[in-house]
Design goal:
Blueprint lengths: L1 H21 L1 H10 L4 H15 L1 H6 L3 H4 L1 H23 L4 H8 L2 H12 L6 H17 L10 H25 L7 H20 L12 E4 L2 E4 H26 L2 H22 L6 H19 L18 H4 L7
Antiparallel strand pairs: 1-2
Helix pairs in contact: 1-12, 1-13, 2-12, 3-6, 3-11, 3-12, 6-10, 6-11, 7-10, 7-13, 8-9, 8-10, 8-14, 9-14, 13-14
Length: 327
């Protein structure tokens, strides 16, 4: 009974995390359209979340000495890189499309494992990669010469590549006697990302007065401060915290299924709140991307011996894609 209750709590937390992450783009895009530069929105999100997570960072301050390279890489790729490219992408293409493109990350992780680490992958994982790429072709409407801004598509692909760095670096810090606490890695990743984005975004040039006004969300006027509060507290801090706890309570396969709901939630919210409608082929393509991503991240190894990519054994980067994305 206690195990069943723990699983139910884990599912609830995973759903909360998927909803929180899925709402980041919907809240950020009105701010960008109101005049804030995407880099400034990223800086506000990361810096605000880093300040909230300062107590966690202080608790795990030993990580600075033990794993400095891990924290620096996580901050550059998993925090600053993913957020910057994702927010830049949604300034040019629909939120749902950007997130679906980012869901190529599990497939790219397997390519990293196969061609960089030179380890075998399961046949099911390879099928997942093919499905994800084929679905992406429908989402971006390649038959029409790309139905969306090519630069926006490339920015979303860059976010997917940074997401690969998130999985690979998480794998390096998850196992062994010197394993890093994930909450500590997240807290310091946010701090590193905040420092990097301060240099890149130059927030002193930001139009701070825009935060005191309002932004248009699908025809409705919403206070900019409320949208920013959602991005920082819900779509970043709460999303990361609930996501980490849920993955610990659930199996990677179950967490992977729930993680796929993030793209569905983001697309649905953008449809309802931002009036971003997708065509039938794009909806079908999006479903295929999610199915391919799920197969790629949850397929089991053919044999229990030997670390095969696409499995769920310890030390396998592919297993980490069963967690939530960082958007």
């Amino acid at each position: 009974m206690r195990m069943s209750q723990g699983r139910s709590v884990g599912l609830g937390l995973a759903l909360a995390s998927a909803f929180a992450f899925g709402g980041s783009g919907v809240a950020a895009k009105p701010l960008i359209e109101a005049g804030l530069d995407p880099l400034h929105v990223v800086w506000l999100r990361i810096t605000g979340a880093a300040l909230v997570m300062l107590p966690v960072a202080w608790r795990h301050r030993a990580l600075i000495r033990r794993r400095p390279a891990l924290l620096a890489g996580f901050g550059l790729l998993a925090v600053a890189g993913v957020q910057t490219f994702y927010f830049a992408a949604i300034s040019r293409i629909p939120v749902g499309v950007a997130l679906l493109i980012e869901y190529l990350a599990p497939a790219l992780v397997l390519l990293w494992v196969r061609f960089v680490q030179r380890r075998p992958v399961t046949r099911a994982a390879a099928v997942g990669v093919v499905l994800a790429v084929g679905g992406l072709a429908c989402v971006v409407e390649v038959w029409a010469g790309l139905g969306f801004d090519p630069v926006g598509v490339l920015l979303a692909l860059a976010a997917a590549c940074c997401q690969v760095g998130y999985f690979v670096l998480s794998d390096q810090g998850a196992d062994g006697e010197d394993a890093a606490d994930p909450l500590g890695v997240i807290a310091y990743g946010l701090l590193v990302g905040a420092v990097v984005m301060t240099v890149v975004a130059r927030p002193w040039a930001m139009e701070w007065s825009l935060l005191g006004g309002s932004a248009d969300m699908g025809g409705s006027s919403v206070p900019a401060a409320l949208l920013l509060g959602w991005i920082v507290l819900i779509a970043t801090v709460l999303a990361y915290m609930t996501g980490v706890i849920s993955v610990r309570r659930l199996s990677p396969q179950v967490a992977g299924v729930v993680a796929c709901l993030e793209a569905v939630i983001a697309t649905a919210l953008a449809w309802v709140l931002l009036r971003e409608h997708l065509s039938a082929p794009q909806i079908i393509g999006g479903a295929v991307v999610l199915i391919g991503a799920f197969i790629a991240q949850s397929s089991t190894p053919k044999a229990p011996s030997g670390p095969m990519a696409g499995g769920t054994g310890a030390g396998d980067p592919a297993r980490l894609s069963a967690g939530h994305t960082t958007t």
